[in-house]
Structure formats: structure tokens, C-alpha cells
Amino acid sequence: MRTLFLFLLLIGPAFADTGHDGIVHPRTAPEWSDVALFVFAAVAIWWTRRALRRRTPKD
Fold it and tell me: N or C: which end of the chain has fewer CB within 10 A?
């Protein structure tokens, strides 16, 4: 089972479509991946600051 998983993991990308079709399109707005990355970064910063605040002893 493990061998099959490793085989599929290694051979899977060979069957994937290419990432670029060769045609350049002008960007008119942010892509959804850009929005998701921004939201993820904002939540990560908020979560880290919250954890550091809780870790700091209160006087």
C-alpha cells in the first residue's frame, strides 16, 4: 500500500495539465489566490500577536 502511494505521489504530477497555456493576459484585478493569501497572512499575524500577548506576564 505504501509503495502504491509513493508511486502515485511521484507519477501524479506527470499527468497534470501544464500551468501555463502560453497566452499572456493582462491583469485587471487580483486573483482569488491573492485574496486568500492576504487573508491567511492577516489571520496568522493576528493569531501570533494574540499568542505573544497571552504569553507575556501581566504586571
Answer: C
